[in-house]
Amino acid sequence: MTNVAVLGVGMHPFGKFENKHIKDLANTAIWNAIEDSGINAREIEAAFVGNCLGGILLGQESVRGQVIMRHAGFKGIPIVNVENACATASTAFRMAWMSVKSGLYDVALAVGVEKMFIGNTAKSIEALTTATDIEVCGNMGLQFTSLYAMNIRKKMDKYGWTKEDLALVAEKNSYNGSLNPYAQFKKPLSKEAVLSSKMIADPITLYMASPMGDGAAAAIICNEKYAKKLSSKPMIRVAASELSSGQASMLESKPTESTTYITVQNAYKQAGIGPEDIDLAEVHDAMSPAELKLYEELGLCAEGEAISLIREGRTKITGDIPVNPSGGLASRGHPVGATGLAQIAEVVWQLRGEAGKRQIKGKNGKLPRFGLTQNDGGYVEGDQAATAVHILSRI
Amino acid sequence: MTNVAVLGVGMHPFGKFENKHIKDLANTAIWNAIEDSGINAREIEAAFVGNCLGGILLGQESVRGQVIMRHAGFKGIPIVNVENACATASTAFRMAWMSVKSGLYDVALAVGVEKMFIGNTAKSIEALTTATDIEVCGNMGLQFTSLYAMNIRKKMDKYGWTKEDLALVAEKNSYNGSLNPYAQFKKPLSKEAVLSSKMIADPITLYMASPMGDGAAAAIICNEKYAKKLSSKPMIRVAASELSSGQASMLESKPTESTTYITVQNAYKQAGIGPEDIDLAEVHDAMSPAELKLYEELGLCAEGEAISLIREGRTKITGDIPVNPSGGLASRGHPVGATGLAQIAEVVWQLRGEAGKRQIKGKNGKLPRFGLTQNDGGYVEGDQAATAVHILSRI
After folding, report:
1. Is B163 helix (H, G, I), strand (E, B) or coil?
2. Torsion angles phi and psi, residue B126, rounded to 5
3. pTM (2 decimals)?
4. Which residues of B fall within a CB distance of 8 Å from A130?
């Protein structure tokens, strides 16, 4: 069994960078990851490049990764272009992991990048509707926000979630984002400010919704045997990588019937741990209140107990099970093809103790040991189209 | 070392199917591959779906594979969307192979599909220009045809290739295509007809150029240990899988400096054989005359000897080293995201002795044993953006 480590991670800040090209965003993330890993760039043997909307938004399909990698100075390494809606970057990471695990390469690069601000908001929103079957939902304009709203309403009815509970998630994550130099939004928001912001799709308000964004994130993945020769960085092992498609409806009511539940259970099994071992989680809160249901689906608490977690502050960076210390999708930002690798980057920094003012503590009061990422992408016929879960561990 | 086999292959015919949806094309190829493999569809654990131009031509990005697989009746298996210009399907095949080789899955599906006839030829041609950096070449309208023409002109000057030699390739391949029920064009063309057809980019005439097309191809890939339990079909091993990007300029002059040469040498090494062991090859003749240079780059003959091979009929299906028995890209067709898997399908059928009227013989006068596919995709800054080589062997 080949063990695989993440040697380095890097990001381009998420935000609105109207004068930057997609190539520039990726270039920064790639070279930050290389610098972080301490390896020589020539050690990289293959690249897996994730981008989601570049065909429609930028007119670049077919060789997106080759264009990006050449701009970043790479020539002569095999490149694979990967796409999986908002789970694109996690999928690219998984492919890079798989390539090392299979023994094909010792060192691989995963990159995720998205350029959503193109000076035409309507077109960017239209592109986002391609994260479903365009003929069934996309052309109806049924956007994620409304799907999330329906799902959250059901949960409010069933478990007694209040609007204040929903706002608490955004309050927590906006505070975390204010401590993250890579975050799109760095202003802490009060619960009251969240609730009084513009209503988008009841009960979701503007400050609960992830924004459009430009950004990139990257990771260097390496065979552990080889890693020790290349880098003196603390080694972060990929303890589990799981990807699912279409396991269950996005409007499911029971946590244990969700795609995330099925996927994370496989991940726990692969890592040989349980949810009680997880020190932190980066999760897909495209709309902040979705974080609540994810607590239950990930097994961080029992069914119906999510509101206790948020009310008691247990998922704050000072809590016993911090969730979205990066700020999550709504505060750190959500350039769709980059998000999964931004989650990986945050977990790596946290496990190494490099997360600065937002550094969390592990269960023993020292550095955390196990971090989890959960990244959703798209839906087809009501089912989640892709859910990726990764568990990283400090060894 | 996990050995990996191709258990089954399937295609939707290549051609102009204006009333068929991309989902229908893929559906036919997928189910033909399943039927061919003899396995139960429920054995498939993951799908790697290749599509190249659907974002721009059909408006469907993000979850192309999920949409296709759901239409084909699949729910709940992980799906990865892969893109690599004209080498998209080979890349999907390689990812599926890698996933089985890594031990993650026992059975995986690779699909490649493209829908190019959308009732707007200008848009389809524009989409093809995304197989390069749109800002460097794409927006200039520098199409493949002209690049191929420049390359072929150099070879004519250097090695004494005549226009008749170029036409002989199209003559041979159109005859092969006439024997292939999946081919887009089934009319054998004389050398004279090829030469007198419309000039596209001197010396390339219309009948030397691959057409736009709709089509799909698929393969079922399996761990060999598990394969014997699932299927009674003759086992076809993936003896080598190689992928390169940007190794050398498309206008290179020496065969041994080409991306194909570098890639195939790695493939021969992986398979433990040499070019003298190859019984047949399916190669990327997007413009028929390119087949000549590929003879040399693949090592099927020495530098400068390609014209002897074509003049002496050695690469005909009755020759000692048949090339493009399927008809190749110009006759079988080239729906870009499907081509690589159509090459794989042809080699599987040939190795099994199931190629009907175009069946070739191996070196011992019986069934062929080793077949090779070579699939190019796109270019960035003059370099080939992706070249995939696979070697299959009957075991």
Report:
1. helix
2. -60, -40
3. 0.97
4. 55, 59-63
Q: For residue range A47-99, list pLDDT tens digits in order.
A: 999 999 999 999 999 999 999 999 999 999 999 999 999 999 999 999 999 99
Cβ partners under 8 Å of residue A365, min gap 6: none
Interface of A with B in 223-262 (CB under 8 A): 243-247
ipTM of this complex prediction, to 2 decimal places: 0.96
Closest chain A residue to B138 measured between Cα atoms? Answer: A60
Residues of chain B with pLDDT under 70: 141-142, 252
- Euclidean distance between CA atoms A202 and A346, whole angstroms: 31
Q: Which of A12, A222, A301, A334 is catalytic?
A: A334
Radius of gyration of chain A (CA): 19
pLDDT at A1 over 80: no
Distance from C-alpha of B284 to C-alpha of B265, rounded to nearest angstrom: 17
Please count the other Cβ atoms lying within 10 Å of the Cβ belonging to residue A381: 16
- Do you find a cis peptide bond into B289, omega within 30 degrees of 0? no
Using an 8 Å Cβ cutoff, are A101 and A88 in contact? no
Contacts of B62 in chain A (CB under 8 A): 52-53, 83-85, 88, 130-132, 377-378, 385
CB A147 within 8 A of CB A132: no
Interface of A with B in 63-82 (CB under 8 A): 63-64, 66-67, 69-70, 74-82
